[in-house]
Design goal:
Rossmann fold, about 45% helix, about 550 residues, 7-stranded mixed sheet, single chain, alpha/beta
Amino acid sequence: MNQPSTPTGLSAWGETHHLRGPQLLADPLLNKGTAFTERERDMLGLRGLLPPRVFTLEEQLERTYNSFRGKPTNLEKYIYLVNLQNRNEILFYRLVIAHIEEMVPIIYTPTVGEACLHYGSIYRKPRGMFIGLHERGRVAEILRHWPQPDVRLIVVTDGERILGLGDLGALGMGIPVGKLSLYTACAGLHPSYTLPITLDVGTDNASLQAGPAYIGSKEKRARGADYDDFIEEFVLAVKEVFPRALLQWEDFGNTNAFRLLRSYRHRLPSFNDDIQGTAAVALAGVIAALRLTQSTLARQKILFLGAGEAGTGIADLFVAAAQAEGLGAAEARARCWFVDSKGLVVKDRGDHLAAHKLPYAHEHRPVATLAEAVNVLQPTALIGVSGTPATFTREIVEAMIALNPRPIIFALSNPTSKAECTAEQAYAWSGGRAIFASGSPFAPVELNGRTHVPGQGNNIYIFPGVGLGALASEAREVTDGMFLVAARTLAGLVGPEDLALGRVYPSLTKVREVSLQIAAAVAAAAHDAGLAGAPRPADPVADIRERMFEPVYRDYA
């Protein structure tokens, strides 16, 4: 949103006139760098602290973009952008928005995964808060150390399941930082409203514990009552210190993600993007793909590789959508099948199934492999959320083609190195007939004189709009119905020009408009459900658009 509604030192010059000279240049939300005018330099004690030439924002943008392009590796580009954000946030967001397709893979997937692996080595300046288990009893006090008192959106992780990379502990801070940058760039949430948090509860990654650059506590990951009591204190502290905040759970392990969502979603506005955001973006892709196959949700049979947060979250939302098309709940669930590390998930497989798998453990003989499951079940769609690369083999893709004129094949695992197959493989092995999407970006593929543009099923299309809509409506709860509305809205924004290229998501260049439309739909859903605390605007799209943050310099003179 454009400006905080309560004084925060950012809403008007009157709150910030006391900042001068080096202090002003050190504040990334207020610093304009070489764009300070001659008059501002005199007024604010900046003479001699800046190079003589005054640059416009557009000139700064060109210079920073050229510097960015000159970096030799994606990790170097990530570090450059982090440093820019820490120095001048207006210029940072102007750069990201102006070159969104080029910037998103750097500030988020896939490069953020590499950045997290190196986070201890590249860490330079605090951005967000680290709260450790040993600080129990002081969490509310620690939250009050944050300089912005009106935080509205918190992304929190405990670092146990960072993308497909596993337990990275405190190095996972790159994820909340990246997600909140996307909230601002893609949905116009004012940066002062955002707070990234990493809960340091230890790590079971032995190489991190032994490494000299690890920035977290070198203790085994907490479990049981110690962990639960710490999370409870954290949630209560958030409600006390930031009572208007929405909480997004991010990259928690399966053992905690589902139960934390169940425990807290009704106690404060919160959601889990790995479960609900992934579900919505995947369902949107399936709905859009059905315009190419000329079919309906009720006629689909989906086979998932991977039965964790993402997979069962997608299945749950598919069931809700299929019920809306007339299927019963049991019939809709029967159209979703899972293969995990032990084979097909069935009722009598013998091993103890986690609670989130039980609704999809159907009566069937044991099946050991994904290839066999494809041949036996004959799915219309294959969705990979396993984190295991190269598992959609040529044999499997060719089997899907033999079963369906236009099979839906989504390789959604992140980062790129974890994708179940590449876009080039999916198109080549299917003769260009697969409807393909991936979690990380792949380049267009030329095949038999035709260009195939893979859709990126990135949660960036969903979570910024959902969060913005929940905040705009002051929703007391974020419901699964809001994610279903978001999925349908996103699917409806896929145009004929996208489908003609085989792309089942809009161009990333349209992401701010996508977020706006989703935010308006989510806000309307909150009002319809009686969960909104804000008055219902006559024109929700115009109301939200007016409040979206735009990265432009203020005139201090």
